[in-house]
């Protein structure tokens, strides 16, 4: 991985990180390589399009709302996991799984589903799954930012 930004991310920190990743002699005729690992495959927005009647304004709003609520959902999941609260892990993972399923990223949905099903496992099993999910959500966020669907602020 070429970069890592801890939340909350400020615009200054993001700009500084990006400047460090793009060489000053970059050929401006070619698009720069993505600063962080790109989502592969890109999200399939067909579910979101079906839910919104294909209206891009509603799709953008749904993505915005998802990323507005996601930090709290991930924090609730992490707290439940660290407090050895299997019911809390199950509930938080279930909410995330439902929300993620609309954004067309099967890997993120799979990770949330796995956390949901394995909610009674010990921390050493669940923590790597949570970290993978957090990473995937970060990459999903970067995808939608690059697409222009998320604003400059905290989204």
Helix and strand topology:
Elements: H1 11-21, H2 46-52, H3 56-82, H4 86-101, H5 106-117, H6 123-146
Molecular structure report:
- By secondary structure, this protein is mainly alpha-helical.
- The protein has six helices and no strands.
- Helix 2 crosses helix 3 and helix 3 packs antiparallel against helix 4.
- It is globular, with a radius of gyration of 17 Å.
List keywords for this structure.
Four Helix Bundle (Hemerythrin (Met), subunit A); mainly alpha; 155 residues
Summarize the structure.
By secondary structure, this protein is mainly α. It is 63% helix and 0% strand.
Can you tell me the CATH topology of the domain at 44-146? Four Helix Bundle (Hemerythrin (Met), subunit A)
Query: Tell me, what's the shape?
Result: globular
* Largest sheet: number of strands, sense, barrel closure: none
Mean pLDDT over the residues: 82
Q: From N to C, what is the helix and strand string?
A: HHHHHH
**Amount of helix:** 55-70%
Structural class: mainly alpha
What is the number of E strands?
0
- What's the gyration radius in Å? 17 Å
Distance between the termini: 24 Å
What is the tally of helical segments? 6
Percentage beta strand: under 5%
CATH architecture of the domain at 44-146: Up-down Bundle
Uncertain parts: 30-36
CATH C-level class of the domain at 44-146: Mainly Alpha
């Amino acid at each position: 991985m070429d970069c890592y930004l801890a939340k909350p991310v400020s615009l200054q920190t993001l700009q500084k990180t990006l400047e460090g990743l793009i060489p000053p002699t970059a050929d401006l005729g070619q698009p720069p390589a993505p600063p962080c690992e790109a989502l592969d495959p890109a999200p399939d927005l067909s579910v979101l399009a079906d839910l919104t009647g294909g209206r891009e304004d509603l799709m953008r709003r749904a993505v915005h709302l998802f990323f507005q609520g996601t930090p709290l959902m991930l924090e609730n999941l992490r707290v439940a996991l660290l407090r050895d609260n299997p019911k809390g892990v199950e509930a938080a993972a279930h909410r995330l799984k439902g929300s993620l399923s609309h954004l067309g990223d099967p890997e993120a949905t799979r990770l949330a589903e796995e956390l949901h099903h394995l909610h009674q496992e010990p921390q050493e099993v669940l923590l790597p799954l949570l970290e993978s999910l957090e990473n995937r959500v970060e990459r999903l966020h970067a995808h939608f930012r690059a697409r222009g669907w998320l604003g400059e602020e905290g989204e």
